[in-house]
Amino acid sequence: MEVGIIGGGKWGQALHFAFSKNHKSRLYSRTPKHIEGFASLEEVLACPLLVFALPAQVVGEWLEANFVDKGQSILVAAKGIDVRKHIFLNEMFAKHLPENRLAFLSGPSFAAEVMRALPTALVISSHNTSLAQTYEKLFPSFIKTYTNDDVVGAEVSGAYKNVIAIASGICDGLELGNNARASLIARGLVEMARFGVHFGAKESSFLGLSGAGDLFLTASSTLSRNYRVGLGLAHLRPLEQILKELGEVAEGVYTAKAIVSMGTKEGIYTPIAKEVAHMLEGKPPLESLRDLLSQNG
Ligand SMILES: NC(=O)C1=CN([C@@H]2O[C@H](COP(=O)(O)OP(=O)(O)OC[C@H]3O[C@@H](n4cnc5c(N)ncnc54)[C@H](O)[C@@H]3O)[C@@H](O)[C@H]2O)C=CC1
Ligand SMILES: O=C(CO)COP(=O)(O)O
Predict the structure, then answer these.
(1) What ipTM was reported for this prediction?
(2) CATH number (domain holding residue 195)
(3) 253 annotated as a binding-site residue
(4) Residue 10 catalytic?
(5) Domain boundaries, position 240
(6) What digits encode the pLDDT tens for the residues 130-139?
């Protein structure tokens, strides 16, 4: 099969590496890369199976400016919620192609480990079962895949866990201990499930790889960019400087704000996301964590 990847960041390159094991994979990014299979945008858009691996915040403008509908399907590999429009990515993509040509990728998967061909498990979610199964065939044997039809569950899990990972990094950066971190992660899981179920997600998705799996991974490892943002905030470093040094996307920074807006509008209880948004705007981390973890919080 032939697959075209849009986005040459860490995740786009890792997926390209994985797909290239058994298939013809082409990768396009705005900055040319010296890797086998690098292709022009035109060549990539001509592939029947596309994978979108750019940050969530650029989805709208990228599709408007570049997407040409030739009947291709898209597997969305970004994990975030648009901070300006406050809508899920499936709604943004649905403006450009029908939902039966859309699928979403989620699950615990650091690009750096996929690049080393380490065992990984991923979920492909689509309202079109046969499309999910087609994308499944692209993955090599070191990646175990599962399919389901819970698109909103996959999206909310992938986006929300980044916000909880920032909180967890802050908790560890402040050296508040393992008890505190475990309680944040567990409460974070409940919080993200409540948010997702409100928008139609299945609760069971949050107990599996997309939810608990990716949350546990991201909220407990310095390999996570979002967790590292949290560590930086705990050490009272300015956000701008943290992001500049990171040099890669940390989706939770934007998704926290989107969740708070959507939660406020819909009357959903999102205490951890709210405190993360406050800390990103300058609230002292110790004060925020006390508000979250103390008896009166
Ligand atoms: N790195 C990882 O381990 C994983 C990342 N993801 C998700 O995949 C998405 C992409 O992440 P990474 O590749 O890791 O980020 P990255 O920061 O490594 O790369 C992002 C890429 O997007 C490009 N880009 C940024 N704005 C652009 C624009 N306006 N137009 C065109 N290109 C633009 C950058 O030049 C860069 O090549 C994120 O939503 C992330 O949450 C999902 C699973 C794992
Ligand atoms: O989504 C990821 C792993 O599943 C990557 O997390 P970070 O973006 O925090 O590095």
Answers:
(1) 0.99
(2) 1.10.1040.10
(3) no
(4) no
(5) 159-293
(6) 999 999 999 9
**38-62 average pLDDT score:** 98
Are both 177 and 95 inside the same structural domain?
no
Number of domains, the chain: 2
Ligand nearest to the CA of 121: 2
pLDDT confidence of residue 107: 98
**Is the pTM value of this prediction over 0.95?**
yes
Q: Whose CA is nearest to atom 8 of ligand 2?
A: 225
* Distance in angstroms (rounded) separating the CA atoms of residues 58 and 282: 25
Same domain as 95, residue 164: no
State the CATH number of the domain containing residue 44.
Answer: 3.40.50.720
